[in-house]
Amino acid sequence: MHQESDCEDRDRNGEGLNRHPLLKKTIYFRFRSRVISATGTQADSIHSNVLRLRINSSSLDIIVQALLCLCPLPLRHWAQSTFPEWYLPPNIVLKKEKEGWEEEFNTELATYDKLRCLQGHVIPVCYGQIEYDGARALILSDVGGECLAEPQGATLEEDELRPLLHQALCALAELQISHSDLKLDNFRLVNGAIVVVDFERVDEHASKEEAKELEPFDLKFLMKRYRDHLRCLEEDGLLER
């Protein structure tokens, strides 16, 4: 059941808070045939298991990628699907499995596979799974933009945001999925569209019609949260519209 939020809920959940500066660090991990060095920070002070990273390409990386670019187009397409580790963009997100959240990690991995046709526009791209720091982790695209829970993401009027959320939620419903963790920080405003993230908690429906029946209620709930969020930002003097 959805719980409605107010200013107190927003502060407790980390929505709309000013973040403390996060320390930048360099990490190393193996993704299939490639050992990757990347530098970045936690996504925010709440999600300690999510890192936003920029890949540090070695000389070997540059040579391999240059050779792959010289391949004929059919061979290049085959290599990209077979060796995704060599086609990662400069900016990525590493999302580590939280302790005790095995089922949620499995759900998110399965959901990305089910929503493969939405990757890269409605949801992030999932490049694959790795082992990092003693746990499983996903390598995802960094979609950029701003989450709706932050002042920088609260730039739209309600009648501007509503159709964007409707479009994103309907895209999920077409594939029989509805998001069951309807927090504003799971929806990012990216180049005038909404990108949905965090699929640890979803509902998979027997049909797209069943999923579409829930979409108006989910949309109404999110718009109520956004309305409350705008009011809290105004009270705090943080509204940047």
UniProtKB/TrEMBL annotation:
Top-level taxon in the UniProt lineage: Eukaryota
Protein name listed in UniProt: Protein kinase domain-containing protein
Organism: Apiosordaria backusii
Organism phylogeny: Eukaryota, Fungi, Dikarya, Ascomycota, Pezizomycotina
